[in-house]
Design goal:
Blueprint: H1 2-24, E1 27-33, E2 41-42, E3 51-52, E4 58-62, E5 64-65, E6 72-76, E7 82-87, E8 103-104, E9 110-114, E10 124-128, E11 134-139, E12 153-154, E13 160-164, E14 174-178, E15 184-189, E16 203-204, E17 210-214, E18 224-228, E19 234-239, E20 253-254, E21 260-263, E22 274-278, E23 284-289, E24 303-304, E25 310-314, E26 322-326, E27 332-337, E28 351-352, E29 358-361, E30 372-377, E31 385-387, E32 390-391, E33 396-400, E34 409-412, E35 415-417, E36 419-423, E37 426-430, E38 440-443, E39 448-450, E40 456-457, E41 460-465, E42 468-469, E43 474-480, E44 485-490, E45 493-495, E46 497-501, E47 504-508, E48 516-522, E49 525-535
Parallel strand pairs: 32-40, 42-49
Antiparallel strand pairs: 1-30, 2-5, 3-4, 4-6, 6-7, 8-9, 9-10, 10-11, 12-13, 13-14, 14-15, 16-17, 17-18, 18-19, 20-21, 21-22, 22-23, 24-25, 25-26, 26-27, 28-29, 29-30, 31-33, 33-37, 34-35, 34-38, 36-37, 38-39, 41-43, 43-47, 44-45, 44-48, 46-47, 48-49
């Protein structure tokens, strides 16, 4: 037994040594100190989403600074050269305080929002080019929402979807859709029970629906996680109760298995917030209740790295905040502590550049005290990023990466696709007929880049026959991208089915079915028939 114990001690020492080496491999660097130049962008804050452009540079907003101190759009190269592209002004009070950060659209332009400063109205949606040409697309009024903190996100239908923190039917916030040309529609209004004051950007789920967080509201008043369909139907996935977390203000992230991950800004065992998981089966689990030694309070979201781990930050109260890594199983480690000299109080969700390097902002600290733009090299693999990450066959999608001038092939889950090289950091590809949901791959001279998120091929139902019949009728459903069908429903009732090929599925009208539309669910999302099947006696 003594020998066993001695050997176990050496094993523990060796394990700790290896862990220490792994932590040392995480390299934190200040890329840029905000305030380095006159009339600079300053103090990046939540939500502050950072977007990678087609040119490989990083784009975001700050709610303050710029020429008029009402906020700015800034471009930062990976080498640390910063350029203020646009300074917001006070000519229109709705065109002030861009807390949102940016989302890159399929057109290569960037989309964001201004919070505005009018108490009962406020805020706009804007788009801006990579050289600073700005267009304001929509001005919010109380009926369609007020004060958007987050940028809209790009969905597979080519539209952008976002939230406002206030406004709508019950003044608790809204979910909206806007086209790249500015056609706007409120698709849902939150109420206190389903959530209040959403501050984070939405994400598009693997099922084609949208997922988000509300900072307050719900049964206990401490926030919710909600799902909203593109048609605007809202359902609550988690009603926070303090013990499991409270006040989620950051966005969610989803893995290829459909599991959702996020953070809360309070609650949990220690009152400093939690990191949580909601499985694809909608089971909730606290992965970690944050402690003071973790940095305290996470008001931002997580980024899923190419190594399968999640990376995030804590804001800090008794300290200056920290960067951490957590596995989907809950294995947690702090990988950097902020010292104010090199930044303090990170308040923006990190992003992973296609080089594999993580980038983020701090809202304070640095040389001038106005925050820093930092990088974290965690030895993560380079990858290819698709914009958008879901589309129908025949659609053209953009692919971000590096070394793309040497691309020799592009494939979607193994299906070869035609492509056009635009630059060393951007190419376009057409989703080929017969493509299925899975990883996309760009073959380069000497190596290759793969996406680490599945690209979703959206299914389509074009017709079905017969159009009516009694329970037990066999219905032939035709469409596109049907080979990965996992469920067929008549209304809300599941039906037995057979996949004949990529363009045809046969299904049996289930017992108790009523006249309703047919829905097919695949790995790439859902398709709904335009007409209803009529159930006859």
């Amino acid at each position: 037994m003594k020998i066993i114990r001695l050997w176990s001690s050496w094993a523990i020492v060796a394990s700790l040594f290896a862990f220490a080496i792994a932590l040392q491999a995480q390299t934190y660097s200040v890329v840029y100190n905000f305030g380095d130049v006159f009339l600079d962008a300053v103090a990046p804050q939540h939500s502050g989403i950072i977007a990678q452009g087609r040119d490989g540079n990083l784009y975001t907003t700050t709610p303050f600074g710029g020429a008029n101190d009402y906020g700015a759009v800034v471009r930062i190269t990976p080498a640390g050269q910063a350029t203020v592209l646009y300074s917001f002004n006070h000519t229109d009070p709705d065109e002030a305080y861009p807390y949102s950060g940016l989302t890159m659209g399929a057109d290569g332009d960037f989309y964001g929002t201004t919070l505005g400063e009018r108490p009962n109205l406020g805020g706009k949606v804007f788009k801006i080019t990579s050289d600073g040409q700005i267009t304001f697309l929509h001005t919010f009024v109380s009926g369609d929402g007020q004060h958007p903190f987050a940028p809209p996100i790009l969905a597979g239908d080519g539209n952008l979807y976002g939230t406002t923190s206030l406004g709508g039917n019950s003044s608790h916030g809204t979910v909206y859709r806007i086209t790249p040309s500015g056609q706007f529609k409120t698709i849902a209004s939150l109420d206190y029970k389903r959530g209040y004051y959403p501050r984070a950007p939405l994400i598009m789920g693997t099922d084609g629906n949208l997922y988000g967080t509300a900072w307050e509201g719900g049964t206990h008043g401490t926030g919710t996680v909600f799902k909203v369909t593109l048609k605007g139907a809202i359902s609550v996935l988690r009603d926070f109760d303090w013990a499991s977390g409270a006040y989620p203000s950051g966005p969610l992230v989803q893995d290829n298995d459909g599991n959702l991950y996020g953070t809360t800004d309070g609650g949990g065992t220690n009152g400093f917030g939690t990191i949580f998981q909601i499985t694809s089966a909608r089971k909730f689990k606290v992965l970690r209740s944050l402690k003071s030694s973790d940095g305290e309070y996470s008001a931002v979201g997580l980024v899923l790295g190419t190594d399968g781990n999640l990376y995030g930050s804590t804001y800090g109260a008794s300290n200056n905040g920290m960067l951490f890594r957590i596995s989907p199983a809950g294995e947690f480690s702090v990988i950097h502590g902020f010292d104010m000299t090199h930044g303090g109080h990170p308040d923006v969700t990190m992003t992973q550049h296609t080089t594999g390097i993580l980038y983020g902002d701090t809202t304070s600290g640095g040389v001038h005290g106005y925050g820093t733009f930092y990088s974290l090299d965690a030895n993560l693999a380079a990858y290819a990023k698709l914009v958008p990450n879901a589309a129908k066959t025949g659609s053209t999608v953009g692919i971000l990466g590096q070394g793309l001038n040497s691309a020799t092939a592009v494939s979607f889950n193994g299906k070869a696709a035609p492509f056009t090289i635009v630059s060393d950091t951007f190419l376009t590809a057409t989703v080929p007929n017969g493509a299925t949901t899975g990883l996309a791959k760009v073959t380069l001279a000497g190596n290759s880049l793969s996406s680490y998120r599945n690209f979703q091929v959206i299914p389509v139902i074009t017709s079905f026959s017969p159009g009516s019949g009694p329970v037990g009728t066999q219905v032939t459903i035709t469409g596109v991208s049907l080979s990965q069908t996992a469920m067929v429903e008549f209304g809300s009732l599941a039906a037995g089915f057979t996949v004949n090929n990529d363009k045809q599925v046969t299904a049996i009208v289930p017992a108790n079915a009523k006249s309703a539309k047919i829905t097919i669910t695949t790995a790439g999302g859902t398709a709904v028939s335009s007409a209803s099947f009529t159930v006859t006696p």
